Amino acid sequence: MAKYDFDLFTIGAGSGGVAGSRRAGSYGARVGIAESVRVGGTCVLRGCVPKKLLVYASEFARAFDDAEGYGWTVGETRVDWARMIATKDRELDRLNGIYLNLLKNANVQLFEARAKLIDAHTVEVGAKRVTSETIMIATGGRPQRPKIPGIDLTMTSDEILDMKEIPKHLVIVGGGYIAVEFAGIFRNLGSEITQIVRADNILRGFDPDVRASLSDEMKKQGIALKANTNVTAVERSDNGLVVVTDAGERIVCDRVLYATGRVPNSGGLGLEEVGVTVNKMGAIAVDEWSRTTVENIYAVGDVTNRINLTPVAIAEARSIAETLYNNNPVKMDHDNVPSAVFSQPSIGQVGLSEDVARGIYGEVDVYVTRFKPMKNTLSGRDERTMMKLVVDAKTDRVLGCHMVGPDAPEIVQGLAIAVKCGATKRQFDQTVGIHPSAAEEFVTLREKRKEPAKAAAD
Prior knowledge:
This protein is an alpha/beta fold.
């Protein structure tokens, strides 16, 4: 008779939890999984997928404008927001059904209830208790908002996906990727956008040229960026809402989106009671195998606050399944993970930013180009693409690739393979470009940018 009810019990059925559970089940493990909301998690139901669908929808506004430059006569256009959201919801229902079937086909038992650890091998799921040899925490993250007067009048990225109508004036508080993505979406859908950023610019932590390039393009689109600004209160008025800043400004709008970051969703799980170490932010401490401070309990994805990307959570969870149930020890490699921001224009990046690379390697060679994409020559759109390579001056190895412009995520995904393999700038130079394309610019960059000290001396 088995000592435990399950070999693996997963708390959280988002992309990481489902991927790891399925993989373990395919190797014959007895697997249970608990989810208190809907199977699919943030990415599928409240994040990446619905947001990208709205990006696609909003981009048609730009396409209609560009079409006239190519000889098309475009009549009156309008967006049916309610229809778009209903279509989006049907797609999310379809994906939820697919995830449910994936678990069922892998013989993973689903518990649709909130789970809490009782001890290292016991989980309380709703009114029931089950035991498991191994437990995996995959509960993701959640939006955070500051405690200021009127914060309950605002919404987060969870609620904005279900608004009943497009706001005439949307104030977005925050400068991260969620903030800039929704700024682009709703600006193209016709909203007036004011974006309030506490830092000196958007996208803190990204490469400086990426930050500057996207900021410039957003301003061209009419997005009002207010840097070095804090919100002190949100008030209700006869005209909607009023956002009060520390500069004494009162911004009248009809909706406020708070996109000031996310925190690990680790509260109420009983982690500390069973000995799992959690930091002040709520992130679960794990080692290189994703094991917590309790030997048989693992954690993956955003709840660990390592690299908060869906594919990373999936890879971390699958590595656990391979290690424990397929006699194939695998550690997730967190180096050179590519990422994208679906802003408008979009961002793709892999490897190190210029400032981080200088801090680690000292002298680096930097290659940057800015140009008007070929498509814009006839459309007349005033938007420029930026591409950048950061190279180790001693070894010639490419340390980072960064792009702001159309199709940046699609282009950088391919470059990520080269960076992962340790490609050199010489190998980039020896690669023949595809002409005419924007991507060819990455293999035709020849002019080094002057070192900051040398440029200042000239």
